[in-house]
Amino acid sequence: MSANAIAAEASGGNRMESEPQIAAGESRKPEPDEHRIRKRAYAIWIEEGKPEGRAMDHWLRARWELEQAPDPKADLQRLEGELRPGRSGD
Question: Is residue 54 assigned to a domain?
Fold first, then answer.
């Protein structure tokens, strides 16, 4: 149980609406770390010609891009499952 859910339960309230529901067996994609966001934001800044006053825009765009990027571990597991010997073909 998450800290938000525990706090809501302790206060007599319901689970916070903003907390996403995760089905059994489904894993939550980890949020990108600050270092990766910083590197991508810097690359965006360079790509846009180093404009001043756009740091927050670049940070938010970098974070969004990294959150939307495919999960390489999930892709690897999917591909390994497709290539497993003995799997029935078309």
Answer: yes
Cα separation, 45 vs 38, whole angstroms: 10
Q: pLDDT, tens digit, for every residue of 46-66?
A: 999 999 999 999 999 999 999
pLDDT score, position 64: 94
In a domain, 72, yes or no: yes
Q: In this structure, what are the phi and psi dihedrals at residue 83, rounded to the nearest 5 degrees?
A: -95, 0
The range of the structural domain enclosing residue 52 comes to 3-83
Share of the chain residues as helix, strand and coil, in percent rounded to the nearest 5: 55, 0, 45
Structural domain tally of the chain?
A: 1
* DSSP code of residue 13: -
